[in-house]
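Structure (tokenized):
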């Protein structure tokens, strides 16, 4: 998600991937919560973390560079950030359910899995509602792409990638059409998710 905002604003960056729950991780050196993403700066500024906050940082710190990525009015900006928060929350749920399902069957909690799945379903319905409220506009909050669109496409892309909700397109045709149009942008195509090879047991 943050890669896309940086790309749209023309800010050069390098991506370093790792698995923060494995023993060889360096993530705790930069984020006390031991979570990704983390944005590091070549000039030695302190790192920042949390995907939603990084998006806010990018659009506000680099407001004069590239597209605004916000509607531009207070209420619209706040709504865009709310949608980003929803998107990040749904991606967190996706990670949680994925990890639970990687545990041995006797250690899994079906109630925990069901709870995360409800979050995914609720988020997709909320995304659909936002798109329908846009009433035919090309983007969810108007005529220009914003962090809200980035968040929705990344969240839905993750769900589609994992295959955890194979019927989502039939259940949310408006969301499916919106996703299929936007995810073809080169900024999204260049940051598609990839599957990591797990080398340590999930506990």
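Design, position by position:
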């Amino acid at each position: 998600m943050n890669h896309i905002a940086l790309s749209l604003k023309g800010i050069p960056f390098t991506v370093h991937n790792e698995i923060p729950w494995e023993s060889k991780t360096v993530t705790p050196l930069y984020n006390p919560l031991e979570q990704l993403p983390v944005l590091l700066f070549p000039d030695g500024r302190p790192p920042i973390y949390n995907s939603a906050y990084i998006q806010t940082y990018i659009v506000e710190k680099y407001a004069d560079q590239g597209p605004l990525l916000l509607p531009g009015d207070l209420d619209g900006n706040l709504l865009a950030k709310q949608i980003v928060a929803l998107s990040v929350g749904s991606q967190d749920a996706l990670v949680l359910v994925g990890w639970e399902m990687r545990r041995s069957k006797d250690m899994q909690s079906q109630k925990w899995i069901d709870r995360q799945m409800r979050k995914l379903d609720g988020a997709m319905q909320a995304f659909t509602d936002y798109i329908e409220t846009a009433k035919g506009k090309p983007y969810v909050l108007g005529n220009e792409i914003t962090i809200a669109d980035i968040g929705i496409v990344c969240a839905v892309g993750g769900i589609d990638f994992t295959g955890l909700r194979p019927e989502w397109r039939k259940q949310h045709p408006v969301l499916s059409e919106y996703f299929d149009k936007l995810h073809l942008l080169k900024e999204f195509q260049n940051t598609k998710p990839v599957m990591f090879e797990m080398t340590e047991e999930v506990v």
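Reviewer-requested clarification: The first strand starts at residue 38 and ends at 39. The beta strands are 38-39, 48-49.
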